[in-house]
Amino acid sequence: MRSIWAVATNTIKQALRMKIAAVFIILLIVLLPVMGVAMTGDGTLKGRLQAFVSYGLSLTSFLLCLLTIAVSVYSLTSDFQQRQIYTVLTKPIRRFQFLFGKLLGVMLLNTALLVLFSAIIYAITIYTPKFSGATKAQLTQLNNEFFTARASLTPAEVDVTDEVLDTYRKLEKSGQLPPGVSRQKIIAELTSRKRLEKRAAVVGRELLWEFHNVKPVDPGRSLFIRFKYDVSVNPPDLHIYSRWFIGDNRQYPPQGYIFDRKDLIRTFYEIEVPADAVAEDGYLAIGFFNVPLNNTPVIFSSKEGLEVLYKADTFTANFLRAVSLILFRLVFLACLGILASTFLSFPVAILLCFVVFFTGTISGFIIESFDYLSENLSSVYFYTIRPVITLLPQFDKFNPSKFLVPARILDWSLLAKAAGLMVCIKAFFLLLLALLIFSYREIAKIII
């Protein structure tokens, strides 16, 4: 253990002597407070804090990722170039201890810097409302919509398999199936239409959603119904009249709250409801009535049309879990940098790490882009490029801002999934491969 610790401390000293490390550290120390003052967002205090947290964490993650790659690659390749490794490996230290020491040094530095800059972001975020003279209404909005960790429940898709198959058989029997179109595509199109019908309310019709296991942390606080209308025909004033029921409809008379509203189409709104609308067993019913004044069907899209939001944890706990996602990313990149430096020169190793890093950062965009290709190209992509991208860490899938900005809870199951994929599987595999390559690498030749 002493040998590993000695290598780790030497690695930290190497990193601190690097000019790029000093530049990145100074940049973050200067830019984070400036961003806290300069960020405006959408003009509101909530928007300002959302913009600061998003850009602050993104900048911290980006610079620390670049620093991790540079330090992990340089610390090993420089030992080869300056021939210091000859002296180190002649001492009573094994090669795996040497690599473990390098990794430990990089991660200790990363952890210390991540804790420092995350604390700066957290402190600025928490104390900004106090020093900006926020009103009571603004503080209430922040506590309900930002300084919280809200769980999200969306309606389950209705099973329309039997209806789709019945419709398909009728079309087939009557000879109305389009020629040259596969059965799979027709079934998919019919399924999409049937599901859309289940999410649409014609004039004078009510839609009802039922949720179970709704468990607000504090029954004395509020929950929120977030929704967005879509319509088949735009109303003259682009507004929809509605009547909402939120509560328990399993008894007579129903126990709950009624809201009459007028809202703009294709715009997100939230209805604040006391959390006691949820029954003791966690049941919650939401009813929407399309009043005759609208004269047009109202549609709720499957992904974002309606969801129930309620407080499930604190902002501090959610922030710590979000920062952990950045730490997992740094562990992966440190192992990648050490692997690349075991068999590549400094410029090539840096280039390889940057390619992997930037591809993992936009992996979701790449996958979605290739999904729009034609069938022939998609089949080639499916068996070649997609598996390679899937093996990468997919950083954009575990982006901290996706949870903190909209105040969505990053639950422990997702955090464990991120740790399992990025650290326990992919980073561990890279480290094993680095140990294997380094153990068989010829460090020096004996010439007689």
Describe the structure.
- This protein has helices at 2-17, 19-38, 45-81, 84-89, 95-131, 136-145, 161-174, 183-198, 315-341, 346-361, 363-371, 375-383, 385-391, 401-404, 412-440; strands at residues 149-153, 200-201, 206-211, 222-228, 230-231, 239-248, 255-264, 268-274, 284-290, 298-299, 306-313.
- The radius of gyration is 28 Å and the shape is globular.
- It starts with a helix and ends in an 8-residue tail after the last helix.
- It has 448 residues and is an alpha+beta fold.
- It has 15 helices and 11 strands.
- Strand 6 (239-248) and strand 7 (255-264) form a beta hairpin.
- Helix content is 57%, strand content 15%.
- The protein has 3 domains: 2-145 and 315-440, no CATH class; 156-198, no CATH class; 200-313, Jelly Rolls, CATH 2.60.120.260.
- A 4-stranded antiparallel sheet has the order 1-11-4-8. A 4-stranded antiparallel sheet has the order 3-9-6-7, with no helix packed on it.
- The mean pLDDT is 85.
- Helix 3 (45-81) packs antiparallel against helix 5 and helix 5 (95-131) packs antiparallel against helix 9.
